[in-house]
Amino acid sequence: KNEVEQSPQNLTAQEGEFITINCSYSVGISALHWLQQHPGGGIVSLFMLSSGKKKHGRLIATINIQEKHSSLHITASHPRDSAVYICAALLDKLIFGTGTRLQVFP
Amino acid sequence: DTAVSQTPKYLVTQMGNDKSIKCEQNLGHDTMYWYKQDSKKFLKIMFSYNNKELIINETVPNRFSPKSPDKAHLNLHINSLELGDSAVYFCASSQDGTGGQETQYFGPGTRLLVL
């Protein structure tokens, strides 16, 4: 069992919908990253957070250290948000989740 | 300007060959990483270097040898390539030396196919 679990594995949405992707981890961590992997394969770091909430444009990331859980929200989703979203928990190194494949249709 | 660059982008080779993948970052970062993404798209760290010194060396075969001639470069040399080495290899860099407390910047990936 992976130490970092994501749900759902696959997600489809209509343009404009509110999206939530969840990440749970089984051990204590010092930070958590959210990454976006484009259909072409490139990886971009979206957030790094160790507590609370961060917002960037239509993206919001939250983390609850006690519950060992983080969420990534996308408001007013758009087809260009279609990508794989990966969370990664920092222990002594980054441990990656299995990714959530999001497809947003017009 | 490309922040983290990798060459080559694609690499197709025969089993048993030796190959290298190069990575360069122009961000002035102290730490560089190599990650492997398998066919199921699962990412896993292989190595981490801070200012040319090895910090993390995960359980990878010793056929894989990273080399850091200076802190802007971290190359990956692979000896005696095997079918299971086929994957996408990502280089990344970050400012910090603690392996994850700051944003990491990823290269475009090198798609290795071993035949």
Topology:
The complex is a heterodimer of chains A (106) and B (115).
Chain A: E1 4-7, E2 10-14, E3 19-25, E4 31-37, E5 43-49, E6 52-56, E7 59-64, E8 69-74, E9 83-90, E10 94-96, E11 100-105
Parallel strand pairs in A: 2-11
Antiparallel strand pairs in A: 1-3, 3-8, 4-5, 4-9, 6-7, 7-8, 9-10, 9-11
Chain B: E1 4-7, E2 10-13, E3 19-25, E4 31-37, E5 43-50, E6 53-57, E7 64-70, E8 73-78, E9 87-94, E10 105-106, E11 110-114
Parallel strand pairs in B: 2-11
Antiparallel strand pairs in B: 1-3, 3-8, 4-5, 4-9, 5-6, 7-8, 9-10, 9-11
Account of the 3D structure:
The complex is a heterodimer of chains A (106) and B (115). In chain A, 0% of the residues lie in helices and 60% in strands. Chain A is mainly beta and 106 residues long. In chain A, the strands form two sheets. In chain A, strands 2, 4, 5, 9, 10 and 11 form a six-stranded mixed beta sheet that branches. In chain A, strands 1-3-8-7-6 form a five-stranded antiparallel beta sheet, with no helix packed on it. Chain A is globular and about 40 Å long. Helices cover 0% and strands 55% of the residues of chain B. The chains are: A mainly beta (106), B mainly beta (115). The interface between A and B is medium-sized, with 21 and 23 residues.
Which key terms come to mind for this protein?
heterodimer, A: 106 residues, mainly beta, six-stranded mixed beta sheet, five-stranded antiparallel beta sheet, B: 115 residues, seven-stranded mixed beta sheet
Briefly characterize the structure:
The complex is a heterodimer of chains A (106) and B (115). Chain A has 106 residues and is mainly beta.
Distance between the termini of chain A: 36 Å
- Helix- and strand-based class of chain B? mainly beta
Our Rg estimate of chain A from Cα atoms comes to 13 Å
Summarize the biggest pleated sheet of chain A: 6 strands, mixed
Beta-strand percent range of chain A: over 45%
Query: Helix content range of the residues of chain B, please?
Result: under 10%
Order of helical and strand elements of chain B: EEEEEEEEEEE
Q: Determine the number of helices of chain B (DSSP H or I, runs of at least 4 residues).
A: 0
